[in-house]
Amino acid sequence: MKSESLFERAQRVIPAGVNSPVRAFRAVGGVPLFFERASGAYLWDADRRRYIDYVGSWGPMVAGHSHPAVVEAVQEAASRALSFGAPTEAEVELAEMLCRLVPSLDQVRLVSSGTEATMTAIRLARGFTGRSVIVKFEGCYHGHADALLVKAGSGALTYGHPSSAGVPAETAAHTMVMDYNDSSGLKALFQEKAGQIAAVIVEPVAGNMNLVLPAPGFLEGLREQCTRSGAVLIFDEVMTGFRVALGGAQARYGIRPDLTTLGKVIGGGLPVGAVGGRRDIMQKIAPLGPVYQAGTLSGNPVAVAAGLATLKLVSQPGFQHRIESITQQLVTGLAAEARKAGVIFSAQSIGSMFGIYFRDAPPRSFAEVMQCDRERFNRFFHAMLDHGVYFAPSAYETGFVSAAHDRPEIETTLVAARDCFERLS
Ligand SMILES: *Cc1c(COP(=O)(O)O)cnc(C)c1O
Predict the structure, then answer these.
(1) Whether 174 and 85 share a structural domain
(2) How many structural domains does the chain have?
(3) Residue 46 shares a structural domain with residue 120
(4) Across the chain, which distance is largest between two alpha carbons, in Å?
């Protein structure tokens, strides 16, 4: 197996052999696949085995892998320049498109990753409000900036502890961690700390603890508390942008955050992130205002070309509707196969994101996510992989469907799932 020998080589020069932890297959066990090629809904590994892909590079590949329009745009841009470190027309076009498609964006600044976007949004919120405390939710992931690698403290309404070594306790002490979908907890928090809170950052649909939908009233309550207290509401739509709806979760749920972070789809597979929102807040950023932010490769012409070409595809009429319907067919089919085999299982989707759970109903909180049967997921994951279907190698990740997935891929997946569920029961 070529993946095995590559993994051995990789581990000598790269910690754990991977450049991002989840890729190491630690959660599911076994050797991570090394990939060589991708097209449409399919991936080929280093041993030339083909898989139907439900990871989509963790979200960006919404148009399908190697879409000809995106590849052509990238080649064309690369043939002109790889980088200027100076303004280009294409980045203006991308910014205009983002402001047109995402309801709450007056202005936007481009960066190179989701992590950079959320880090900048936090700094901007603090600079704008002159306050220090930020609030996040357990199970939501916002990239790996220090202030956001924080877990809940020992009691309700206490400050957080670092969730990673290397994060100073003093940094984590400015972050409070609340329960997702807990509206009454939030109310209590704001009663006690309102004047100190700079920002609340949330995944409006949580996609980094498997998939958890916002409970009715949760996002509305957040909006209300932030407005009343002068805290900046940040929707982290790095994953949900152009996935949950064309205008993101904010369009789907009709809630206007003050700042929005974007990434993944807006680079179409190349590194692009963005932070945008209210004009009065965005004008605090350097060089207009006192909040510093910069990037050597920000707005890189090749990355921007991939993003623009992808956004042109996803904003075509019917794109979102079709991909949402295919995703629904997938989850309905999976749930039906599990039921026939007598396996305790549930599944749900929103837009082109889906969650599968070895649990009787979709979870509504981090605690409920933790109740899923992880051991069963791991067996299911490996069995599906043997059938040529690539789900995310962890029970706590969201699945992604692309526009290149169609009835044949869904049918093949469901036939494989039938066999795998039967083996589990
Ligand atoms: C992926 C993700 C990030 C981090 O983006 P990177 O490009 O990996 O730095 C931040 N927030 C959310 C919601 C994400 O899903």
Answers:
(1) yes
(2) 2
(3) no
(4) 62
